[in-house]
Design a protein that fits this description.
Helix content is 29%, strand content 0%. It is elongated. The chain has 102 residues and is an all-alpha fold. The longest helix is centred in the middle third of the chain and has 10 residues.
Length: 102
């Protein structure tokens, strides 16, 4: 979805369910991100600016001995604590050189 693809931003596209969620919930319309996947993913998964985790500069490739700092609690871990079921799908780019990084 793009900015102008929802009714609550004035789109011609009808999105009544999203409009209702937006009206009754918290609207996050100022999220600062980086143009690379590792810094952006680290922000989303940790809730911290990438400069705080040291992942602000580039992509972590499969062969690199680096990953999100292991002391960081990630979003899936918090969701599991709240009794949600989680599953990993798609690109990771947060480090895979050892199993603890996954």
């Amino acid at each position: 979805l793009g900015w102008n693809d929802v009714g609550f931003h004035g789109s011609e596209i009808k999105t009544p369910n999203l409009d209702k969620l937006s009206a009754q919930g918290v609207r996050l319309d100022n999220y600062y991100t980086q143009p690379l996947c590792t810094p952006s993913r680290s922000q989303l998964m940790t809730g911290r600016y990438q400069i705080r985790t040291g992942l602000q500069h580039e992509i972590i490739w499969d062969c690199q001995p680096s990953c999100v700092p292991l002391e960081e609690k990630l979003l899936p871990e918090l969701l599991k604590e709240a009794d949600y079921v989680t599953h990993m799908v798609g690109k990771w780019h947060l480090g895979i050189y050892k199993k603890d990084c996954l």
